[in-house]
Amino acid sequence: MLKPYSNRKYFSVYLLVISIFSVGCINDVRRMENDTLELDSISFDSLLVKSYDYLYAQQDSCEKIYGIGSFQNWYYDQFTGELSFSNDSVKKLIIDYEEVGSVSLKTNTWLWAWANPHLEEKVKGEIGKVKSYGESRGFKKLIDRKWTADEIDGWEMTAIAAYLLKAKGAYRVPSKDKKLFSFMIFKSIKWADTTIK
Q1: C-alpha span between 8 and 77 (Å, rounded)
Q2: What is the largest CA-CA distance in the chain?
């Protein structure tokens, strides 16, 4: 049994830990509230700048931690919702992805994933939140299903989607003829179990 003064000591430490944790939680809540307030009033151009800053930091982190640019091959599967990277036919990295949309160089248009009937629901279940946000702010590019665009527009929409959905990174996948580019964001990233061949 602890002596009374010992109890006070442990209780004080407990209170200190709880206080630090509570302050951290309060700061997180305040940060989230500030982000929400800012998103409720931000201009489209400011959203784009903030989104690019966010995605750039995420891409930099992905490269440093996972070296995504160093893999020999990539493969994606709409039915599983996985984008994988491999070396020498051994899967090394697995990413759960969300389709954002695509840019066609034949028609010079952007098409949102939520409006593309050729995509499986598995890979476009969350992108509608970007449209909903666009509707709440009146941002035409986030609402219109298809519009005149180039590859830069594709990256802009991907950056906005990444920021709004708090993605861990993004990737652009070309079609075989390189006339269509699909843009996707990373929901989660994990190393593959390379002990199983």
Answers
A1: 58
A2: 80
Q: List, as one string, the DSSP characters of 117-161.
A: TTS-GGGSSSTHHHHHHHHHHT-HHHH-SEEE--HHHHHHHHHHH
How many CB atoms lie under 10 A from the CB of residue 57?
Answer: 11
Q: How many residues does the chain have?
A: 197
The pair of structure tokens assigned to 73 is 């091959």
Which residues lie closer than 8 Å to 4 by C-beta, 6 or more apart?
A: none
Could you tell me which of 168, 148, 72, 74 has the C-alpha nearest to residue 105? 148
In angstroms, the CA 16 to CA 32 distance is: 24
Question: Which of 53, 32, 44 minimizes the C-alpha distance to 134?
Answer: 44
pTM of whole model > 0.85? Answer: no
pLDDT tens digits for range 89-108: 999 999 999 999 999 999 99
For the chain, domain boundaries:
1-41, 43-191
Query: Cα dihedral sign for 23, 24, 27, 32?
Result: negative
